[in-house]
Amino acid sequence: MNSGLICVSLFTADGAGIWIASILTLAIYSFLYKDNPIYRFSESLLIGISVGFLLVTTFDTTLLPKAFEPVGKGLSVMFGIGGFGSIISFIWLLIPVALGLLMFARFVPKYAWMSRVALALYIGFGAGASIPANMQSYILRQIDATIRPFLHIDSFWSLINAIVILAGLISTLFYFFFSKEQKGAFGKITRLGTFYLMIFFGATFGYTVMARISLLIGRLTFLLKDWLGLIS
Amino acid sequence: MSIWEKAKTLDRRIIFLFMFLGVGLPLLAKIGLPVSVTDDVRNVYNYIEKLEPGDIVLVSYDHDTGTLPEMIPMSDAILRHLFKKDIRVVGMALRAEGNGIGRQNIRRTSAEFDKTEGTDYVFLGFRPEITAAILGLGTSFEKVFPKDDRGIPVGELPLMNEVSNYNDVKLVISVTDDDTPVYWVNYANARFKVKVVAGLTAVMATTFFPFIDSGQMVGMVAGLKGAAEYEKLIKTPGRAARGMDAQSIAHLVMIGFIIIGNVAFIMRRRGK
Amino acid sequence: MRRTFPILVCFSFGMTMLVQFFVPSKLSTDAYNEITNWVQIIYAFALIVGVVGLLKYHFSRVSRRERGWFYNLVTVASLIVMSLLGFIGGRGDGGSFMWVFNNMMAPMQATVFSLLAFFVASAAYRGFLARNLEAFLLLFSAVMIMFGIASVGNAIPPFSDIANWILINPSMTARRGIFIGVGLGTIAVSLRVILGVERTYLGKE
Amino acid sequence: MPLQVFAFELYISDQPNDDGTRLTVEWDPLPPDDLRSIDPEIYSLLRSESPDGEFTSIDIVSRLDPSRRKIDENLATGRSYYYKLAYSDSTISWESNVAGPAAPEENWYNRSRTNVLIGILITGAFVGIFIILGRKGKSLYLRPIAGLNAMDEAIGRATEMGKPILYSSGRGKMERPASIASMNILGSVAEKVASYGTPLIFPNNDPVVTAVAQEVAREGYTKAGHADLYNPDNIYFVTDSQFGYAAAVDGIMMRERPATNLFFGTFEAESLILAETGNSIGAIQIAGTDSSIQMAFFIVACDFVLIGEELFAASGYLSGDPQVVGTLKGSDYLKVIIIIMILFGAVVGLLNQEWFVNLFLTA
Questions:
Q1: What's the confidence (pLDDT) of residue B8?
Q2: Which domain holds residue D69?
Q3: Which residue of A has its CA nearest to D112?
Q4: Whole domain around residue B258: which residue ranges?
Q5: Whether pLDDT at B234 is above 80
Q6: Hey, is the C-beta of B184 within 8 angstroms of any chain D C-beta?
Q7: pLDDT of residue B60
């Protein structure tokens, strides 16, 4: 194995790829020192490429199969065989496409309000779907998970833990009260709630650190091994 | 301005530099921080250690590229152990992406030990339908994999002439990021009594404790830490040991800075 | 009309999604699939509108030769080149579109992501100061978890045990409290939107 | 080897709460008496549309499967199906009795979700009642939220310094209620900013958010009587790539040097990339998100954070709309109900009354 400093050839598709990826990696890291033209160049490049990527994938996976192809097919069926039924189904196909096209009304001030119809559908859809989903997983399931351990209290410690959990949940919920001043006895409970919240925030931060460092290990391994060949 | 005041407005680039070195240096130079070996990993090592040269082990690559950084050090360590002991390896994949990963992994590690494809190891390729594939191998490897990954009929491979079903395999190792080992346990182990070992991502480890307790699995190697333990057992520290070193040093750097920050904070308060 | 009709649309689609959750019949699942399809199509068109706006923005900066116009040009050029690569060459493995993805887009994104390794360190240095009891608890649980779960401390039983206890008891319960609060807040906002009480998103008349 | 049929029963039933395409097959503990000596590991489950017709294998059944049931999917509503279990090897070919017929039925109400329905009805009632009370103009006390109190000061500071304000709603798509909450906050911010004449920059991660945000901001400027100051170029779609967006917003911060950063919405890993860069340029930062994990990073790196539900309450605080403020009161009552449920549940749980705990069980 080549132990020299640079072991990747620039003149193959893979080798050139590794070179480019490495240089861009360094360009992004240069931001840590300070903002500079090289970072700005790679930032602009990343934005352009990623939007291009999004455009192509959205076209291929959504617009073509869900909008253009069905409408094209509908047109050919309607003119080929005709009949009232095919006209109805064609109009049905046109609704979402028409709604999508309404988005372009934004460019014409007079009709700009029409794009709100599509937005209203979009937002209504999200709001309606989120209500049962949140009731289920954010409220009922959390209550269940809090009280279920009380069915299986078999030791002093499991009781202590269940009480720690219970006290934490109740005090955090009190913290979120909006219409009551956090003073007096109530204030003491809400302060307990903030203690729990701080422990959660600290723990979450600490727990995530490992994964974040793994990302850096990944990038540095790429630079040192795949590009420079310093690690065998 | 006192040194404690300066600490308050410390240029964060100094922290960046230390983090960079804390991760980069352990990757470059082996440090070899102590790694304590858990029983689950030691059991895997011991089981393989007791095998005879020439025995056959099936390694299945049941993960995708997303978890590659965590899985590859593990597969490397286990394969090195197998090849060092002259155990023969049959590779396969139950995930499409695992096919490319497994092929590269086996060819690369086998090259370190001058092994020949076809006699010392084979790579059979990928089969979808987990249950069907695992059960099928119990009857006939050839039925499930008529040809190897290169398109050579298995009848022409000396190694595969000795493998007709699980009876000829001493161990199945499933390297995975999901619960595929459950299938190996439920179908290959329960029905055909072949021993099963899981190589897992760290987050999946808890899922498999019951199987180890019940003796349905020999053991497991979980995450970068498990791989580092395995590297320690085979006495060839590699990527996992370095990764763990880098993790630990980076954590210590962070904790060090937090301590400095707090000491400075207390000193500033006293000064007031 | 300009305001009432969108509110009516919002109300009817919101209610449909809400009711749909409780109705398992075929009609209901078909309606669900149809609506999600519509939403995706609207998104796709909105994306094109967004890209048009984006191009307009960058082009106007380039044509006015505003400070840094060269970088706007880089964005526009790379957007166009990437789109052409995809539309002409396809998205297949081994094509140039995927080559750019694998060797430029993916590594740059991974690198930006990995900046977090540095930022967690600088944020911890500044933020984890034991100013008061709350701040001390934040600091204490972060350090315990960092030390006890991920690094050397993992091998020392009291540390790993304390870390695990924190994770599955006080930390988890606070998270549940947040969940319930977020759940209630989400439901309230959604109801206000469906009922047309909250209509800021519609802009002006 | 002769085919032997033994008395072993399968139990077929309609899968409840579905669109009429599934049947449930259940069986007694395996092995059947007559196979006790062999105790096979694997059986095949066969299905046919007539009792004497050809049965095809649809699944395998493991002796070890503790649930002792399979759900057969993608069936035709109303059509009759028959099932049997089979095992064969070189010595024996065994089949169970044919079970059936059974036909999948279509259901119009999902009984397993009744608790969700009741929860929504209760919540809806409280929210509805307090909207009506709010309309009647009943004024309510609201406890101060530091992050929202600081908003005016943060906007004022940017104005004094002659620097812009940067707004971000993170990665949330517009259908997320957190994004809707963010747009409500944006409306109030735009109104204030307009009256001071401070520029507001809002790079977006989602094109639909762009469309909505432009409407909301224009409305805010108009309300303040400064429609002329509204610049749609300052609210623009950047890219939907998570880290492309983070890189871009970082760059904008370094170049435009905003005095105030406002992060409201659904954030993911980019939260700390933005907040740390914002901190390094000395901006005052106020954040609020529905993502519990990212709250932790904002807490460490920002000056003020709206925790959890506070984000959704913000529009009531900022706009003072009595209907919205009313729903906050309603939500407080709901929290009381939840706390009572939990306390009661803990007590009856200790008394081993599982039925009460199961009221909250969700599929």
A1: 83
A2: 3-102
A3: A136
A4: 3-28+248-271
A5: yes
A6: no
A7: 95
C68, C110, C194 ranked by CB distance to A128: nearest: C194
Sequence-distant (6+) residues with CB within 8 A of B163 are: B56, B90, B141, B169
How many angstroms away from the CA of C39 is the closest CA of chain D? 10
CB A130 within 8 A of CB C168: no
pLDDT at A74 > cutoff 90: no
Nearest to D264 by CA among D187, D192, D207, D323: D187
How far is residue B224 from each of residues B35, B74, B106, C144, D89, measured CA to CA in Å? Answer: 11, 7, 19, 21, 44
Q: What DSSP state is assigned to residue D69?
A: E
- With 0-12 CB in 10 A as exposed, 13-18 as middle and 19+ as buried, what is A163? middle
Determine the residue of chain C that is closest to D227 in CA distance.
Answer: C204
Nearest to D327, CA basis, from D338, D341, D342, D312? D312
- D196: domain CATH number is 3.40.50.1220
Same-domain check for residues D223 and D98: no
Please state the domain extents for chain A.
109-145
What mean pLDDT value characterizes chain D? 89
- Ranked by mean pLDDT, the top range of A223-227, B78-82, C41-45 is B78-82
Q: Per the CB < 8 Å rule, is C181 touching D308? A: yes
Q: Which of residues 268-287 of D touch B (CB under 8 A)?
A: 280
Is the CA virtual torsion B238, B173, B44, B219 positive or negative? Answer: positive
Both D179 and D279 in a single domain?
A: yes
Regarding whether D173 and D76 lie in a shared domain, the answer is no
Q: How many CB pairs under 8 A join A and D?
A: 185
Answer yes or no: do B8 and B106 share one domain.
no
pLDDT in tens, A16-44: 889 999 999 999 999 999 999 999 999 99
Q: Give me the mean pLDDT over the D27-46 stretch.
A: 78
**Is there a single domain that holds both residue D29 and residue D168?**
no
pLDDT digits (tens, 9 = 90+) for A88-104: 777 877 888 898 898 88
Choose the mutation target among A216, A223, A226, A230 for the interface with B, i.e. most B CBs under 10 Å: A216
User: Mind telling me how many Å the CA of C162 is from chain D's nearest CA?
Assistant: 20
Nearest CA in chain B to A221: B27
Q: For chain C, what's the residue count?
A: 205
- Clarify whether residues D206 and D297 are in a common domain: yes
Total domains, chain B: 2
pLDDT at A1 over 50: no
D129 assigned to some structural domain: no
Contact A210 C150 (CB under 8 A): yes
- Within 10 Å of residue B239's Cβ, how many Cβ atoms? 22
CB contact under 8 A, D107 and C24: yes
Contact A179 D142 (CB under 8 A): yes
pTM for the model stands at 0.86
Note the helical H segments in D162-269: 177-196, 207-223, 242-256
Q: Which residues from C are below 8 Å from A68, CB to CB?
A: none
User: Touching C: which chains, 3+ CB pairs < 8 A?
Assistant: A, B, D
Contact D42 B135 (CB under 8 A): yes
Burial of D305 (0-12, 13-18, 19+ CB in 10 A): buried
* Helix intervals (H) in chain D: 114-135, 146-161, 177-196, 207-223, 242-256, 270-280, 292-301, 309-319, 322-350, 354-358
CA distance B251 to A208: 11
In CATH, what number is assigned to the domain containing residue B212?
Answer: 3.40.50
Q: Is the ipTM of this complex over 0.85?
A: yes
Q: What is the pLDDT of residue C153?
A: 61
| Identity of the residue numbered B211 | F
Q: What is the pLDDT of residues B35-56, one digit of tens each?
A: 778 888 999 999 999 999 999 9
Q: Which pair of structure tokens corresponds to residue C80?
A: 């166009």
Q: Across the interface, which of B23, B28, B254 has its CB nearest the CB of A217?
A: B23
